[in-house]
């Protein structure tokens, strides 16, 4: 049987091998067992029922709540020469009639259908007269009342168990914690279901995130030391930076190609083809690259710029190590990235609600950058997997970040921001903290407020590091208009109330003493912070610096 499966995989779908656990899922289903599959988006769930649809006699009925996607799937399948059709309310009568007729004659391999239509007596009756290969229930988490995607129609799908007792059913979803999995099995009345739960964890990927400090040089060292011959992807935000970085790496002996949506389609296709077929190619790309790319031996994914969300980071880094062998997810980021992404966000035409969501996503991404505990734990917790212990295969596990109890200084910092009216940038607030009676401080009378001089235990650079971390972790916000004005955020409350302990990264010790892998041979951390803060404090100069650096206006550069 599995020989047949492999043959169909190659001949019909054009893939060389199964991804785990596709082969096992397919075997069970073809043998007639019910199956539950939980696999991240992009993992390859569709194949788990599309291939059995061809191996088992009769038509496979696929239940999906997404009418828009049905049509795409049907077109894609048709291109592979698979006979597929769909029934949904968006289709004209003639088309529905034609599909029903094909179904009756047993001429369909797959039938996509919306749940409410499937459950109409007429449809059930029609299906009762057909030979059915299997039922696939996609987006099966919709059956869960606790989830945010609950669809009442999905509850009725349990009727399939009685109406079609001999037809195996497979339920698939990308998101289901333990409770939801149990709910799916019960509410769909799956019998002795084999469960294949592939969480979000990609244990062979080693996550590393460092401070940006002449990013290209850092990248070069990383490639030379760890991946001199390997295939990998380097993600950049702008097209210009993509091209420059590709050229720069090529000059240094790497086989690097650019890829972004601004290149002619043929050239893009050519570069993609080379990346897939040649060994050891480095693709320098914007996020335009990657959808549907399935190259098993990508040994690293490097980010020279901060992705705008954890979802994006996960998806992009997830292109590394599909073969299960060790791979690196390597990233450097700086506050310029944050400023830049925030500017993009604020200047977009999106509705306020969407911007709010995007702001939160960016904050979460920054949180991942700044944590002092296991990166993988944080990443997985973001996707709802809360039961992982520290992984031992990320930078913070392998090389614990020196930390210190920053609760007290954080409270001082927050209080200085608050007492000065939440109308100033970081330099001014630091002046207040360290008791520096600058002209501006005296002018505003801030040398007479209670927080003046309360933070003498740290120097200016140390305070900068504290502020960077407070911003990155969402305790402090920066105004969107571009003046670098700090304000307290909701997130501060527990800290100010003394209900939270804050661990901060000990940046200074890192720079002075033991060099981290990221900053080996690089300039001291404090210098970087100073540069970051100069930018941060004056967004106009930041904007200009970015424009100079990247040669493009800091807008409209996503592909
Ligand atoms: P999901 O439904 O889990 O989000 P899809 O079924 O849409 O994922 O598959 C994601 C991508 O992976 C598709 O481009 C698909 O063609 C590809 N894919 C699936 N299985 C394989 C395989 N065994 N080998 C190569 N590519 C695959
Ligand atoms: Mg899918």
UniProtKB/TrEMBL annotation:
Its EC number is 5.6.2.4. It is an enzyme of class 5 (isomerase). GO terms for molecular function: 3'-5' DNA helicase activity; ATP binding; DNA binding; four-way junction helicase activity; hydrolase activity; metal ion binding. Residues 215-365 form the Helicase C-terminal domain. It catalyses: Couples ATP hydrolysis with the unwinding of duplex DNA by translocating in the 3'-5' direction. Keywords: ATP-binding, DNA damage, DNA recombination, DNA repair, DNA-binding, Helicase, Hydrolase, Isomerase, Metal-binding, Nucleotide-binding, Zinc. GO terms for cellular component: bacterial nucleoid; cytoplasm; replisome. Its cofactor is Zn(2+); Mg(2+). GO terms for biological process: DNA recombination; DNA repair; DNA replication; SOS response. Residues 26-194 form the Helicase ATP-binding domain. Belongs to the helicase family. RecQ subfamily. This is DNA helicase RecQ. It comes from Marinobacterium nitratireducens. The gene is recQ.
């Amino acid at each position: 049987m599995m020989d047949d499966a492999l043959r169909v995989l190659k001949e019909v779908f054009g893939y060389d091998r199964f991804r785990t656990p596709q082969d096992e899922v397919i075997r069970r289903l073809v043998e007639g067992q019910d199956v539950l599959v939980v696999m991240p988006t992009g993992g390859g769930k569709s194949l788990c029922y599309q291939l059995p649809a061809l191996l088992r006699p009769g038509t496979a009925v696929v239940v999906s709540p997404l009418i828009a996607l049905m049509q795409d799937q049907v077109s894609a399948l048709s291109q592979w020469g698979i006979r597929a059709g769909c029934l949904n309310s968006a289709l004209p009568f003639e088309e529905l009639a034609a599909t029903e007729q094909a179904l009756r004659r047993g001429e369909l391999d797959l039938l996509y259908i919306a749940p409410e239509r499937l459950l109409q007596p007429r449809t059930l009756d029609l299906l009762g007269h057909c030979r059915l290969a299997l039922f696939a229930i996609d987006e099966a988490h919709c059956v869960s009342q606790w989830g945010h995607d609950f669809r009442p129609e999905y509850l009725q799908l349990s009727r399939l168990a009685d109406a079609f007792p001999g037809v195996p059913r497979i339920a698939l979803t990308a998101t289901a914690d333990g409770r939801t999995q149990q709910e799916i099995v019960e509410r769909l009345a799956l019998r002795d279901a084999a469960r294949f739960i592939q969480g979000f964890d990609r244990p062979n990927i080693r996550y590393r995130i460092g401070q940006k400090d002449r990013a290209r040089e850092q990248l070069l060292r990383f490639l030379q030391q760890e991946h001199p011959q390997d295939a990998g992807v380097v993600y950049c935000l702008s097209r210009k930076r993509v091209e420059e970085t590709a050229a720069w790496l090529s000059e240094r002996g790497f086989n690097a190609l650019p890829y972004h949506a601004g290149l002619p389609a043929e050239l893009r296709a050519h570069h993609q083809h080379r990346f897939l077929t040649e060994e050891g190619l480095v693709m320098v790309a914007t996020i335009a690259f990657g959808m549907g790319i399935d190259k098993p031996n990508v040994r690293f994914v490097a980010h020279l710029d901060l992705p705008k969300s954890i979802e994006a980071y996960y998806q992009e880094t997830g292109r590394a190590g599909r073969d299960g062998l060790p791979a690196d997810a390597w990233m450097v980021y700086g506050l310029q990235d944050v400023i830049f992404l925030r500017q993009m966000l604020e200047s977009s035409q999106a509705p306020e609600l969407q911007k709010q969501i995007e702001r939160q996503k960016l904050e979460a991404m920054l949180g991942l950058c700044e944590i002092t505990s296991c990166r993988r734990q944080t990443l997985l917790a973001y996707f709802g997997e809360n039961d992982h212990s520290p992984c031992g295969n990320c930078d913070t596990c392998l090389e614990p970040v020196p930390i210190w109890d920053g609760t007290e200084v954080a409270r001082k910092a927050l209080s200085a921001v608050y007492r000065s009216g939440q109308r100033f940038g970081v330099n001014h607030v630091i002046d207040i903290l360290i008791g520096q009676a600058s002209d501006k401080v005296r002018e505003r009378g801030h040398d007479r407020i209670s927080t003046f001089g309360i933070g003498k235990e740290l120097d200016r650079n140390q305070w900068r590091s504290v502020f960077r971390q407070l911003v990155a972790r969402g305790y402090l916000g920066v105004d969107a208009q571009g003046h670098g004005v700090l304000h307290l955020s909701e997130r501060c409350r527990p800290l100010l109330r003394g209900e939270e302990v804050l661990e901060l990264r000990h940046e200074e010790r890192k720079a002075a003493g033991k060099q981290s892998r990221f900053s080996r041979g690089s300039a001291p951390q404090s210098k970087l912070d100073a540069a970051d803060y100069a930018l941060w404090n004056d967004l106009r100069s930041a904007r200009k610096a970015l424009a100079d650096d990247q040669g493009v206006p800091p807008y409209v550069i996503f592909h």
